[in-house]
Fold this sequence. Notes:
The complex is a heterodimer. By secondary structure, chain A is mainly β. Chain A is built from no helices and ten strands. Chain A starts with 5 loop residues before the first strand and ends with a strand. By secondary structure, chain B is an alpha/beta fold. Chain B contains 14 helices and eight strands. Chain B has helices spanning 20-23, 31-34, 40-43, 80-90, 113-130, 148-158, 184-193, 217-238, 241-244, 259-273, 285-289, 305-315, 335-338, 345-360, and strands at residues 10-16, 94-99, 137-142, 164-170, 197-200, 250-253, 293-295, 320-321. In chain B, helix 5 (113-130) runs parallel beside helix 6. Chain B starts with 9 loop residues before the first strand and ends with a helix. At the A-B interface, strand 5 of A face helix 7 and helix 10 of B.
Amino acid sequence: MSAENRVEVGPAAEFEDGDAELVQVGRVEVGVIKANGEFHALRNQCPHDGGPVCKGEVEPRLVGEWGGSGERVEQHYDDDQQIISCPWHGWSFDVETGEHIGDDRYAIPKYDVVVEDGTVYVKGE
Amino acid sequence: MIDPADHLVVDCDWHYADTFTQVAPYMPEPWKTKFPKSGFGDTGVRQNLSAFFPASTGNRFNYGKIEREFSEYPDGGDTKADVLEGMDHLDIDKTLQISHLILAMGGISADDRRVEAFVKGYIEYMLEEVLDPDEGIYGLAPMPYHDIDASMDILDRVEDEEAFVGVVMVTAGASPPLGNRKYDPIYERCEEMDYPVVYHTGGSGLDDYVRAGYQDMIETHTLGFLEANMSQIVSVACQGVPEKFPDLDIVFMESGVTYIPGLVCRINEEYLKRSEEAPLLEKKPGDYITDFYFGTQPLEVSARPDLLEICFDMVGTENLLYASDYPHWDFDSPSIITDLPMLDDEDRKNILGRNAVEAFGL
């Protein structure tokens, strides 16, 4: 990531897990999200209706496991899979891949993020 | 166009017009004894109590113009000879018989032993009197799904009978809906036995289950059967029955085909907003639904041809099964398929017979 086309987001130390910071990158708004200690950047535009997806909640994905015939499907949060849900209609996306959790034909554009000398940068277009 | 008489035609939904009088001698005790003493013949309420003061909008003959031998059912009743005569009349080679009377089972909530007793008697009666694979007459075993143990007994009974090739679950009145884990043992066993599960709509509670206060059959019949099937499709898909039992063949019968694209679109739209509520699904619920088989009857031939073509494309002609619903009042002849202009002859042959041979292992 060259220094010329990157956008400074802010000190990495100021991010808690689940935080998202919005920055303008060229003509689009991008959400820089910290999840499970990693930084990810997604365009703040839901592919469904253009909603501010990065203003939504970041949380582990709720998954179900079926124990066998007649058993209840037990649900638990999978901490390894963090999702972000658009506050407008609830469409939920994998923070790491940007893909919709129910249909991967829908995906939010991703941007490269780097932390250098304690500062978070996102790469421009 | 092909002539049904020249090709294999499998009718996946023939309603055997059974009567309690026919089946009762085959019921287990005490029903076998209780029934003849019940005064059914003298005082029992018939569906066709009066066509002027009908007991239900489910009465097919309200002010009707339908004239047929069984217009008095359930007082009439088929024999094996009637089935063979009807098959010859419609150019049908093989039929899957479904009990007419069992369609009311979903409305029975006070005493489910009656359903179990009827089904056990029905199976013995059909094996003894009607079914005959050599003549192409097969049966679908009704599942008394109120009682899982009773359902398992039925599956044990029919497992080695060549004449039974699947089970039927009546969709109207099933509570909880048929995707509930309660029914898993039935699905698991059917999957093991290579028995398709045929979900069949029914007339249980016909006057209540969509819109109490409907006045004529045209109202309940437009939506009632449809609602019964649609509500079970949603449950079966969202609760992950096809994921739990991937080798289970699922068949939905008797609501035509035009509702399927609408339901698929709607359920997929919900899924995009609420994916985590169906955690067993590996793909969109509509993708499972379009893997189900669907009986064609009553095919909406009055629909715009382009709409019908979209419906067939969406489900896939390999997933459509010809069904007559004979001898019910709105039955479809095989010509309903052979006359469809958007199909080629291979599609027609598949829908008329080949798909059913594969699904039911005939």
